[in-house]
Amino acid sequence: MPELPEVEHVRRTLVPHLVGRSLTVQTIGRADVIRGADGHRFRRSCRLLRQRLLDGGTVTCLGRLGKHLWIETEGGRRLDVHLGMTGRLTLVRPGRSLTGVPHVHVTWRIGTREQDEYDRLVFQDPRRFGCLRPFGNGAGHQWVILDRLGPDGLTIKARELEARMIARHRPLKAALLDQQIVAGLGNIYVDESLHRAGLHPLTRCCAVNREQYVLLGRSIRAILRQAVVHDGTTLRDYIDSEGRPGRFRSKLKVYGRAGLPCLKCQQPLHTLQVAQRTTVYCPQCQPASL
DNA sequence: AGTTGCGCCTGTATGC
DNA sequence: TGCATACAGGCGCAAC
Ligand SMILES: [Zn+2]
Q: How far is the CA of A217 from the centre of ligand 1 (A)?
């Protein structure tokens, strides 16, 4: 599932094929995956909607914060892409037919240069937890979503973590899943980060000391960095914009390994429900603190 | 205000 | 063989 490393890898694989090219909206299969700044879903395709989906714009850059990716075009139009659980942003080669491909919600034609490999960009999402969200850069710029995100997980500092968490009573895991505290972590990388830091997922944020926040910050950055290097984690659905899976799955130390021996201490890993999510941890390496 | 729980959504895996 | 059920989980919102 796309968390920060997967989104960053998608961004990097899109850059060489999109920057400097124009986009033309080709099909809108489901307008309701497109949401306004206030969160409302569009009901149907119209000229205004295509305009807001960067129609006719030339791509200047692709940005990312946490799990949010955005495409920017000349003139300052921007489109926030959130992949949710099963969203994909993929490039398609000339001549390849998309008829019969399920859950294709939006397609763009790429104004190609000579020797370009791809001539279309596709947004697919079977589960539809993902969405496309146009926003601008004007005075009333609707950065609403991005404004609410905490510091990016790849570079967040221990002091930033501490400042945002120290007064909270929530379990560590619940806080780390909260995108307003740190942007980019999901279930997989929270479990990996806590295991690396040796912290129990149910530990109250307010019971964590400075030294432990330093360790936690280091762990989050290190895990995310390594995952980016390995092009992210593919469990089943995730592929990058060129159709390639990530290679970080075999590096996971706790996620998906319930009952198997801890790779640090050989004790069997346990599971818990925290914040409505399956949580895998090592009772020995991540002792509960009272 | 901080925190918790629920529902959305579909493909895959499991049980009877 | 086929149907029912459980599970996966990011996020917005309701409720405490
Ligand atoms: Zn251990």
A: 20
